Amino acid sequence: MKLFLYQNNYYGKIFLTVILLSFVFSCGPSTKIVNSWRDPNISVDYRSIVKVLVVGMVKDESTRRMVEDKMVSLMRANGVPSYTYLTQNIVKDLDSAKFVAKLRSDGFSGIMIMRLVNVEKTTSYVYGSVQPSYYGYSFGYYSYASPMYYSPGYYQTDKYYTVETTVYSTMPDKLVWTATTSTVNPEKFDQTIEEIAKILFDQMKKDGFLKE
C-alpha cells in the first residue's frame, strides 16, 4: 500500500509540473524584439523629455486613434497623439520641409512613429504525442507498462504582425532609435499595444538609449 501511494505521488508531481510549465509558456509574451538600433552618440534622460509626438501610421482613422491614445497613456513623458496635431494626411505632413521647425517651435523634443510593416501567415505541423495514463495503477508488470494515450497531430496556422517603431529627435533632426517587433496571434488590441509598448521601452533601456 505504501508503494502504491508513493508511485501515485511521484507521477502526480510529474503531472503537476507539466501543467505548471504549460501554463507558464502559454502565458508568456506574444511579442518579441526582432532587432533594434540606436545612435551610439545619443542617450536620453527620461526626465528631460518635454513633449513627444506619437504617430500611428495606420490607414483606418479609428484604429490610428486607438494606437496613439494607448501609447500616450503608457508614456510618462508628455506624449501627444498626432491626430490632435496633424491632419489626416499623415504622410504629407511628415514630408513637409517645415514640419521639424514647427515641432521645435511647439516644444516637441522628439517624435515616435509606429507602423505595421507586414502580416505573415505560417502553417506548421504539430506532431502527435503519446502520454501515459496515471490512473488504474496496479502492482507487478502493469506498474512498468501503464496504458498509453495517443494525441493525433494537427496543422496550426499562426499570424505574425511585424511593427516598426522609430524615434527621431527634433534637435538635431535625426533618427536616434529604431526597433522591429513581431507579435504572434494577438488576441486583444489593447493588450497587444500595451505589450509592444512595454517591450519597446524595456529595449530602449537595454540599448542604453533611455536612462532614468
Q: Can you describe what's shown?
A:
- The protein is α/β, with parallel strands linked by helices.
- It has a single domain (30-124, 158-211), classed as Rossmann fold, CATH 3.40.50.
- 33% of the residues lie in helices and 36% in strands.
- It contains five helices and ten strands; from the N terminus they run αβββαβααβββββαβ.
- The strands form three sheets. The protein has a six-stranded mixed beta sheet. Strands 2-10 form a two-stranded parallel ribbon. Strands 6-7 form a two-stranded antiparallel sheet.
- A hairpin with a 2-residue loop joins strand 8 and strand 9.
- Helix 2 packs across helix 5.
- The chain is globular, with a radius of gyration of 25 Å.
- The termini are far apart.
- The model is unreliable at 1-27 and 133-146 (pLDDT under 50).
Helix content: 25-40%
**Structural class, from helix and strand content?**
alpha/beta
CATH topology: Rossmann fold
Question: How much strand content do the residues show?
Answer: 35-45%
Features:
6-stranded mixed sheet; 10 strands; two-stranded parallel sheet; alpha/beta; 36% strand; 212 residues; disordered N terminus; Rossmann fold; 33% helix
Task: Describe the secondary-structure layout.
Layout: H1 2-26, E1 31-38, E2 44-45, E3 51-57, H2 61-74, E4 78-81, H3 90-94, H4 99-105, E5 110-126, E6 129-132, E7 148-151, E8 154-170, E9 173-184, H5 189-206, E10 210-211
Parallel strand pairs: 2-10, 3-4, 3-5
Antiparallel strand pairs: 1-9, 5-8, 6-7, 8-9
